Every structure is written in structure tokens, then in C-alpha cells.
């Protein structure tokens, strides 16, 4: 099997009331942990690469690692560019074998966002690649971009039909209160399900994407804090809210921070308990296992996509 686009997986997910997990990757252990979990749970997968991750790990290495994962698992896997910010970056990923890209024009005006997104869609569709667009602006930190709470903006449901129609995107990321990183809510966690419902009404059958959807699993934050770390106030999206969204129009749920936390917690604990060890396999092995456990939990208990491959 080769890479698949998101078309088929989103159609089934929408109809089946579940979501596909889109997990960020940047090295071999992360890819192995995620794909071993998906193989055991027979789940379709989206592996996504940010501009920063692509720079860190190298485009060719990442494509080859994902191809190896497909060979090992036989699963339908899409390789997706996360938060592409220019036409050139999207084109480079499309030309280099990705099966899906995101063009994130959410920092531009509505008209500029449409223009940029349509340019990417025209190029991508010509090559059989699917495209995710974004309307509304999430708060939080991603790579070098730090969107403060005051610059964040919920998606306006009045804009979604026109955006989808004029751009031709295959899926749409919306802002309903989630945010990137490990500090998502200062007080009570709240998502604007009313906006999601309204968007779903305007775009019946159309796949919606949720970014910033890590739960910031307290068990890993606790380990980090116990073994020399400091993450006071870390807080994520409650998993029952994500399950509810997955039953609605949300077909893709982005998770990165939870994997980072699991990996970091495991390595911190390992060194606290084994201060004289220095073979990377000794700490990267358990970190990979922790990622696998987190992903299995998400596939089964949050996304509901187990058994759907
Ligand atoms: O949405 C952003 C992802 O968490 C990727 O983060 O740009 O630091 O690789 P990154
Ligand atoms: P988290 O930081 O919540 O894991 O979000 C990841 C994401 O949206 C990647 O695009
Ligand atoms: Zn994101």
C-alpha cells in the first residue's frame, strides 16, 4: 500500500461518528510508537509534519520513515503538512510526496486567506493531494508563532460556506476554544459547541478539523513535575469534549503536546532512576512505548477510530 489522501478516511469518519487522529511526528521513535499503536488497534492514521519538524528531521528522512511504517503496518496512512504558511512550502511537500497539506492562512484577511488557499488547492488537486484550510485563529504557541489570547478569534460561522465554496478545500480547521501547547485554559475548560453546531449546519457532510486538541494528560505532567520539571497550571481539553466533537462534524483531531509530554516524562523519570545510563536506546525505547500507550488510549477512548482501518 502507498500513502492515501484524507478523502476516504474523512467520508467514513463523518458517517461513522468518529475522528481520525492526526499526530505530529519528527523522529523514528515517535513514528514507530504511533504506528505500532494504530496497527494493534486497526486504525487509519494521519501523520503530520510541521515546517519546524521538516527542518529538524529532513523531508526525505520523514517520507522514508512513513513509507517504512506503511510497509510494516499495512495501514491507510496520510502524510500531511501541518500549518503550511506559504504556497511554496505546500508545493514543496506536494512535489516531495506528501498526500495532504494544510495551508494556514488564518493570520491573513478573509480575502487574502481565500486567495492563498485557492492557489494551494488548485496546485494540490491537480496532483491528487487533499488540502485543509483554516478560518478563525487559535491561541497558543506553535513553533516560532505565539498567538496571544487577545489575538485569538473564534471562527465566524457566517464565513464558512463562502470560504469552502471559493477555495475548494477538502476540510476546514475551525477555532472553538482549543489552543496549541500545554497551557490551554486559565480557568474552566470551555469549547464553543454552539459554533461547531452552526458550522455543521452550514456545511452538511463536510469534514471539520480541531487543532490544539491535546488533553495535557495529568499523569505525565505529574511525572514531569516530580522529576525536576516545572509545569504549573498545565491544562488541556477534557477528553469527553473531544469525544463529543468526534461524534459531530469533527473528522480530524490534532494531537502533538500529549506525545511530547509522554516522551519527556518518561525520559525524565528514566534518568532520575538511572543516573549513570547513557545508551540512547535505554531511554528512547521506554519513551516510544509511552507514546504507543498514549496513542492507543486516544484511538480507542477519544477518537473512536479503532477497528476502522
Ligand atoms: O501546531 C503545531 C504543532 O504542535 C507542531 O509544533 O511547529 O513546534 O513542530 P512545532
Ligand atoms: P496540541 O498542542 O494540543 O497537541 O495541538 C497540536 C496541533 O494542533 C498540531 O497542529
Ligand atoms: Zn495546529
From TrEMBL:
<dbReference type="InterPro" id="IPR011289">
    <property type="entry name" value="Fruc_bis_ald_class-2"/>
</dbReference>
<feature type="binding site">
    <location>
        <position position="211"/>
    </location>
    <ligand>
        <name>Zn(2+) 1</name>
    </ligand>
</feature>
<dbReference type="Pfam" id="PF01116">
    <property type="entry name" value="F_bP_aldolase"/>
</dbReference>
<feature type="active site" description="Proton donor">
    <location>
        <position position="82"/>
    </location>
</feature>
<dbReference type="GO" id="GO:0006096">
    <property type="term" value="P:glycolytic process"/>
</dbReference>
<keyword id="KW-0479">Metal-binding</keyword>
<dbReference type="InterPro" id="IPR013785">
    <property type="entry name" value="Aldolase_TIM"/>
</dbReference>
<feature type="binding site">
    <location>
        <position position="134"/>
    </location>
    <ligand>
        <name>Zn(2+) 2</name>
    </ligand>
</feature>
<comment type="pathway">
    <text>Carbohydrate degradation; glycolysis; D-glyceraldehyde 3-phosphate and glycerone phosphate from D-glucose: step 4/4.</text>
</comment>
<keyword id="KW-0456">Lyase</keyword>
<feature type="binding site">
    <location>
        <position position="180"/>
    </location>
    <ligand>
        <name>Zn(2+) 1</name>
    </ligand>
</feature>
<feature type="binding site">
    <location>
        <position position="104"/>
    </location>
    <ligand>
        <name>Zn(2+) 2</name>
    </ligand>
</feature>
<dbReference type="GO" id="GO:0030388">
    <property type="term" value="P:fructose 1,6-bisphosphate metabolic process"/>
</dbReference>
<dbReference type="InterPro" id="IPR000771">
    <property type="entry name" value="FBA_II"/>
</dbReference>
<dbReference type="GO" id="GO:0004332">
    <property type="term" value="F:fructose-bisphosphate aldolase activity"/>
</dbReference>
<dbReference type="GO" id="GO:0008270">
    <property type="term" value="F:zinc ion binding"/>
</dbReference>
<protein>
    <recommendedName>
        <fullName>Fructose-bisphosphate aldolase</fullName>
        <ecNumber>4.1.2.13</ecNumber>
    </recommendedName>
</protein>
<keyword id="KW-0324">Glycolysis</keyword>
<dbReference type="InterPro" id="IPR050246">
    <property type="entry name" value="Class_II_FBP_aldolase"/>
</dbReference>
<comment type="similarity">
    <text>Belongs to the class II fructose-bisphosphate aldolase family.</text>
</comment>
<comment type="function">
    <text>Catalyzes the aldol condensation of dihydroxyacetone phosphate (DHAP or glycerone-phosphate) with glyceraldehyde 3-phosphate (G3P) to form fructose 1,6-bisphosphate (FBP) in gluconeogenesis and the reverse reaction in glycolysis.</text>
</comment>
<feature type="binding site">
    <location>
        <position position="83"/>
    </location>
    <ligand>
        <name>Zn(2+) 1</name>
    </ligand>
</feature>
<keyword id="KW-0862">Zinc</keyword>
